[in-house]
Amino acid sequence: MRRLGVHALKRINPGFGASVHYAGTLPFSTEEKPFTLAPNGRLHGTRNVYVADVRAYTFTRKGLTFTLLANAHLVAESILTHA
Length: 83
Description:
Low-confidence stretches: none
Largest sheet: none
């Protein structure tokens, strides 16, 4: 980086729990498979457990704040319309 003329002004330790997760631990699935999510965010095998989090994405992602907010909005909207 120095060869490019890039110098760190300061180092930051974000602490525990601040890492980026690049793959979903609860992927979307149209089939009722354990530990997967329906497209509306409902955890398969449950009636009232919804996940509005980055964990559902099955592809590599980084910096998708607006996409995550949109997904959380869709999950919340689905919960409200089916409550």
